[in-house]
Amino acid sequence: MFGLANPERFMRFTAPLPPVLWGVSAVLLAVGTWLSFAAPGDYQQGDTVRIMFVHVPAATLGLAAYAALGVSSFFALVFRHSLADAAARAAALPGAAFTALALVTGGLWGQPMWGTWWVWDARLTSVLVLFLFYLGYMALRSSIDDEQKAGRAAAVLGLVGLINLPIVKFSVDWWNTLHQPASLLRAGGTSLDPVFLAPLLTMMAAYGALFGAVWLTTIRAEIVRRRVQTLRARLALEA
């Protein structure tokens, strides 16, 4: 892992990965979408159950992306490594997009099931806080002109936001909430019927591959941007 922390090695090692991940995510999204529409309606929820195949993967990737942002922020803050800083920065926008998608689809699912688009439920509120952490991270980086100072300030905020991840995950267990408890990863195994489990897992794999593709592509672009910026500064000094 620390060997790949060298930007040169990282660029060489990851060069073939983004096209593969983009292709895998496209195939999995197509298969997952077909399985989602092929699955029967739920006996209670009817066709609205299909929102699950978008909502659950989006919420999961929103959490996973922030975990990647937080861990990268730790290495950037402690070891002052530019690649870790680039990785944290690259995780922010796709993570925010997944979290926003989870909030929107949660409202679309909640209205027919609960009779309301939004409640200040512990799970919903903690996911909204997660989204605000994403926005705060990106806004903080953009508000400081000095990239090093911006990276350090944003890394501190990224680490603070990690506190919210277990709250999101265990909120339905710690408090009496309207949101249903976990049905996929829980003690005693999943409660999902196989006709729903297959499309859900396929879509989760598709979202994971999509995030990997976006993340790696953005990290590589960020490395190139910083190289160009350094080269321009050097040429300006020489001139």
UniProtKB/TrEMBL annotation:
Keywords carried by this UniProt record: Cell inner membrane, Cell membrane, Cytochrome c-type biogenesis, Membrane, Transmembrane, Transmembrane helix, Transport
Gene Ontology biological process terms from the UniProt entry: cytochrome complex assembly
Transmembrane segments: 54-79, 91-110, 122-140, 152-175, 195-217
Location of the protein in the cell: Cell inner membrane; Membrane
Gene Ontology molecular function: heme binding; heme transmembrane transporter activity
Coiled-coil region(s): none
Official protein name in the record: Heme exporter protein C
Species of provenance: Brevundimonas subvibrioides
